[in-house]
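Question thread 4412

I'm putting together a teaching handout and wanted feedback from people who do this every day. The idea is simple: show students a protein as raw sequence, then show them the structure tokens that encode its fold, then repeat with a second protein so they can compare. Below is the first pair exactly as I plan to print it.
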Amino acid sequence: MMHSEDVQLSTRVRPQPLTPSTVTLLQAIRSYPAVSLLMSTTPSRRMLPTEADRLRGLAREAESRLATEALPGVLGTIVGPLTDLVEVATRGPATEAIGVFVSGASNRLEHLNVSVMDRVVVDATFATRDLVRALHRTPRHLVLALTQHGARLFDGVGDDLRPAPGRLFPRVASGAELGGHVGGELRAHQRRAFYRDVDRALGAYLQVNPAPLVLVGAARELAEFRGLSNNLSRLAGCVDGSLVTAPVPHLVPLIRSAMENYLLSRQQEALDLLDQRISAGRAVSGVQSAWVAALTGRPEMLAVEEGYFYPARIDGSGQLLSPAEDIEHPDVIDDVVDELIEIVLRRGGWVALTEDGSLAGHERVALTMHR
């Protein structure tokens, strides 16, 4: 029988969290063939033997697809590095899923905190939709731990919280700076002065590192800070606790809950925006219409159901999509939705990945447009 400590991923071997810069880097690769292996895994200190075999099987499938095309030099530039990276993955820790990305331009191994549909993709670009989804499900966020005597700022991805880099934090309300304490408590004007100082530092950090924010502290102190802060437009939630007296692992589930509620509200925000833009004639539905609009217009927000995949061929003009079932054929884009996401992001829009069924009236994908 496998014990829980064998299954749970040790924090000491936790892989580095996925970052937006990594996703941007992978999306920039344009080099055929670009091989993507995506597979769900069980969180553990080392990948389970059965899952290691599954990953090797996906690699063999990719090698078979490459062999049918008889591409020159592919053995050394793709197959060899792919085999090596897969073996590295099988000997290392596992999270909810793994992504192996190999091309002549870049080779990367990424661990995801969301489950995926196991698949092999061989295209001119990497399959990054699940990476984008992982960023949406476990987005980078900030945690401001506040008391009337001090403030600490943490930068987090998923359950990984680390002190924010730079010199803006921590901040301390010393007696010398604020005129002393009264019975261990700061006077009201002293607290307000300190909270304004914290808010200015928070604003400076957010200007360079924008992200949703979670506040942690005593309810009374957080209420006072919220009453004067100018930097709470992306407040995800508040957690009653202390990162001074409580260990981070104790508060992580509460912070995660606040982020999950925030993400649900973001989905509703996207659906509300879609309704508004439809009324104003500034939205299209369906993958074909969204594809053309993203290429020729000014995309604002792409809403797409998480489970929607669309293999297709693209005609010579680059605008007409034809659905395809023979996804292993070199002419077929394994998932046009993945390409659509990249186009919208590259052209300055944002993406909302919504629950399956939420866009049934829009053929599972819709795009809003700037004027």
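The second pair follows. I'd like the answer to focus on this one:
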Amino acid sequence: MQVTDGELMTRVREGDRQAFALLVERHKGPLVGYLSRLAGDRERAEDLAQEAFVRLFQAAGGYREEGRLTPYLFRIATNLLRSEERRRRRWQALRPLLSRNGNGGPPVAQERLLQGELHRRLRHELAHLPLHFRVPLVLFEVEDWTQADIARLLGCREGTVKSRIHRGRQRLRQALAPYLHGEDHAPRPTA
């Protein structure tokens, strides 16, 4: 029989580092996948996940088992991403854009190129959605969370989650519409 997250956290509170390693192993893949979709960058996601696990370890003494370790861990990670993005926005406001990079590459089959471009644009637009839309949208559409679980994670009502998912989808459709309808031939400037 598999040891529960709650039992592992109890052992972590008692100083069992192996129990914590089991928690990391159990939750690392889903957490990194979630953060990769939010951040649009796997390496950044791995760094954020590592920091989330450090914070979880540090908070082990005050953790109360209610059968909700996964939402608790995901909330820590989401808050880390939020804080990082706030810092990044402040920094960007203080300094002008230093360089413009082009995205050139070797030619490939047209359909594969178009599909790759669509995926790139989708990742880009998703990564630039405000977090209050991006988090519920990724959790619902990609991570297959229920709206109730997302509401618990975010500390809001299910109706709010439903509305944010809907509005996030609308913003993505609106952002991708010019590209999908052949009207967008140049990369959009980022804010």
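Top answer:
Good format. For the second protein you could add a caption like this: The chain is about 70% helix and 0% strand. The radius of gyration is 19 Å.
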